[in-house]
Amino acid sequence: MTQTIINWHQRAKDLKIDGRAFINGERVAAIGGQTFECFSPIDNRKLADVASCQVADIDCAVVAARAAFNDRRWAGLSPRERKETMIRFADLLMTNKEELALLETLDMGKPITASLNVDVSSAANSLRWFGETIDKVYDEIAPTADHTLAMITREPIGVVAAIVPWNYPILMACWKIAPALASGNSIVLKPSEKSPLTALRLGDLALQAGIPVGVLNVVPGYGLEAGTPLAMHMDVDCIAFTGSTGVGKKIQIMAGQSNLKRAWCELGGKSPNIVFADCKDLDKAAEASVGSIFYNQGESCNAPSRLLVERSIKDEFVKKLLTHLPSYQPADPLNPNTTMGAIVDCGQMENVLKYIASGKAQGAKLCAGGERVMSETGGFYVSPTVFDGVTNDMTIATEEIFGPVLSIITFDTEQEAIAIANETEYGLAAAIWTQDLSRAHLVSKALRAGTVHINSYDEDDITVPFGGFKQSGNGRDKSLHALEKYTELKTTWIRLT
Questions:
Q1: pLDDT tens-place string over residues 84-102
Q2: pTM, entire model
Q3: Is residue 98 annotated as a catalytic residue, yes or no?
Q4: I need a labelling partner for 251 at 20 to 30 A (CA). Which of 127, 150, 278, 365 fits?
Q5: 301 an active-site residue?
Q6: Mean pLDDT along residues 71-94
Q7: What are the φ/ψ torsions at residue 468 (nearest 5 degrees)?
Q8: Of the residues 104, 193, 225, 266, which is catalytic?
């Protein structure tokens, strides 16, 4: 079969973008008429004027979600009906995957191939997988005395506010809304103002799939103007957030200041990637190390930005690592062969460049990259950057950069590697490269991280939870464990005699 070659640039020119909010089953302008301009990081072209939702818009969305929850227009459907609707929703994402991928790439700057084959496909898979759980997850009967019956059931929590980041817009949205919908909740989704476009299309597709009016609402806007009133709203029962640790702390405070709503926050990371001298395949480790830190332009919370290498192999390993950098040079995100695209906006690019400058100033050795490139396009691109001679007290080793910057740290002993790895406020992910099975298990147990990869990095599946320890937050996306966030546990005690 001949594969159709897509002219993505022409598709981009022909694309019609609706920037209005999605509230109570309709596309609507902000009540006060406010908008913000949405620009593409590829070349800084204007994509759309997007509704800038304020307190009144947030209240309308929450009222619509509450009405939908109270009359059980979604939760009251049979499990089979809800499952089939969610599967239709997933199918519609795949039917419209080229449009969604194009929106994602134009809005956020990632390579079109990644948007098409990873982000949109994984988002659809999340909806489908959680849809399938609806008629397969059972409640419990407690082992009580013969004269009593104690039923333990999980019920939908109510109105869920989902605030998602700009780096994986459609995927992070579906990681939240899929288990929330599967549990029978209504949702108000606030995408990042940096990348709101695919979230808005999710509202259209949900309605087309048969999700009832008011069950899913999408409110674009800025954090203080839309995110804060959503987190503070007295009629929101649960808030699910992915983003920075600083904002996550504020959301936890707002949840407590308002109505003690459940607050689940999946936050930042400074993940260690530990390569021991007994690693069986240094070439594989080097390739994976490069691919994992520079994938998505380094804009991943679990990116292995600290590379810990045993001293006896350090020089050899760095040479191997640098040979893979040509595969991750910034290029046109709409070219299907591109593996590294644009930083999401000018502000984030400047922030990355400031971190690079601090690395130089604090004495780290710049081995590669470290500069803005492709400035003639008008877009925001930074070359893949590698620092050697980094110590764990340097700013580039302690703070989350969220860009294509790798810090190499040398260690001598296993205990030193563990100490360096754990000497961080974060605990999202980690990796160990070794052929010693005992070492793999013992070091994995010692690492304070939500996910520990052995002889790989960033492999995952919808069946396993994603989240971290310490200031990487308390959220867990994916897997059946995600259902726990969006449900209340109820005991019904019946006396039989």
A1: 999 999 999 999 999 999 9
A2: 0.96
A3: no
A4: 127
A5: yes
A6: 98
A7: -135, 180
A8: 266
